[in-house]
What we know:
It is a single chain. By secondary structure, the chain is of the alpha/beta class. The protein folds into three domains: 4-178 and 350-367, Glycogen Phosphorylase B (Rossmann fold), CATH 3.40.50; 186-335, Rossmann fold (3-Layer(aba) Sandwich), CATH 3.40.50; 393-572, TIM Barrel (Alpha-Beta Barrel), CATH 3.20.20. Strands 14, 15, 16, 17, 18, 19, 20, 21 and 22 form a nine-stranded mixed β-sheet that branches. A seven-stranded parallel β-sheet has the order 3-2-1-4-5-6-7, sandwiched between helices. It has a six-stranded parallel β-sheet with strand order 10-9-8-11-12-13, sandwiched between helices. The termini are far apart.
Amino acid sequence: MNKYRIVTVIGARPQLVKVAVISNYLKNIPKDQQRIEEIIVHTGQHYDHMLSGVFFEQLNIPKPKINLGIGSGLPEVQLGKMIHKIGEVVREEQPDAVLVYGDTNSTLAAAIVSVQQNLPLIHVEAGERIYRRNQVPEEINRVLTDHASSLCLTVTERAGNYLIREGFHKDRIKFVGDPMFDLFCWGKSKVDQFSDIDFNKMGISAGNFHLATIHRAQNTDSKEILLSLLSALDNSPIPVVLPIHPRVKHLLEKYDWQPSNNLKTIEPQGYFDFLKLLLACKYCITDSGGVTREAFFARKPCIVPMENCWWSQAVESGWAIEVNTDTEKLLSLLEDFPTPQKAREDAFGDGNSAEKIIREVVDFLDQYNGESYWHRSGKFEDLPATRKSDLTFDNYSDLIETLEDSKYRFVEPLQLMDNSSRKVAIVHQVLFNPENSLKTARIENSKGIKACYCLDPETKLDNLFSRDISGMIQEIIHMGHSLGLVVATDMSDKVVSDYIALIENWFKCKVSILFYKDNGLIKALETGSNEFIPVEYLEAELFQNLAGYWQPDHPLKSKAFNEDSSMLLSLNPGWFQPRSETFFETLLKVIDKKEEEISQELTRQTKSDLYQRKKIEL
Length: 618
């Protein structure tokens, strides 16, 4: 049983909270079953005692083996110092992997070090997106870290979908749930035991105050925006408690601004004191992704002074409302927040993310051999061959002419049943790229040749019954080409009959031949009224390129051609291109085209939905 050393790099409050969950889970594993040795490295990005030390005390986090003590500074200077010092630590500790959380500069610095030292990077809370990088530097940190990671552990299922959209292979993504939800489930039962906060001394009472946190650059870089936001909070009808971030405190001293009404600034709070405030508040006002999430866990109405909240699940459920810099809207919501809808209970997992994270990390390292699923189509060694394909439209036209010159007759597939020679039947598998099928049909039609075009009603690549694709298939039929159907071997006769009836009714054309997918070969059957007459495998040499290549060889180099035997060309026009290129390039084009079509359809539906809403509003 292999054991692994993991360097975990942290540096900010949310990461301290998350590492508490994982560390405490690891400590509870019996020694003879422990497979992870965790080495915690604290960068010191948040160096204030209340933002760091107290968390280790209250949440029983093991003291970091190393505290780099870097502190704040210009982002590029801070990042450079972190990369240098984390690099030294990693070289010294020689871990099997580097683990990071979230989206801070500490996260990105550790990611860069892991890449430079050729270590697998594991990113917890990968894939979250708001697609607003301007004034949200954390977005850039998160994206860069994701793309450097060998294993992306997501806290929401939606994050995994974002990563797939960005080209990640599905085996590189694992949904584990949110460690913060684990901690919340445990912490809310311990809050009275560990919190020393006194509401009476603060002049507030449970349910009669709001809780706020403000720290993001988009709300603090501009004096006008910051003071406007704080002034709005100060004008709240009930007290607003603001644990003040050190940077915001410094700015208020610089601007010589103090609240004069209902805004109460306090020092940053430990985890349990902050949780007690959150559980007791009426509403929460925050630009923090972590606090937005905690408010959602606590089912506290949350006002987000941002254009796009990190956690759209909270917004979509009604528990959070974005106001951006609209202080009038903020004040209105402080007066009356609309009753939220019921939210999905498992949006952030089931409260057992620590167990799942450790399991995924161990499973990954057990199988890791220096390669990861870096491409959406698989590992490097699994990708299609890089040799050039001869599957061009011009070459296909030349192939037909050569066969004709060699006195081959082009026939329907079932006419290959007898033993006569020099016959060739062409069967096209219309599995993707119907446009290419139409191009090959036109080439054949120009030479007076009729082929069989086979549809697969179960394909997930195309909607055969859409207007565009139906139109292309109808044009192929009108040229005189026949229509076939490809079905799976495990389908019942009734299911196959229903498919035939559906295709024939839709395209107003008889399905002339049925093909069963059978261990890579094609078995042909005549079709009739709910009857299927089995026949032997066709008496012809079979040439396939369904995976992007000729099999077993190019037809003109084959034994069949040399001996004037019959041939069945089973082709997929999706692989045909105007010029010679690798199969991998063709595959990418197909994938990109499908993604573009999906994106266009989503855009169309969104515009339609917005139009309908406008009509209703009018």
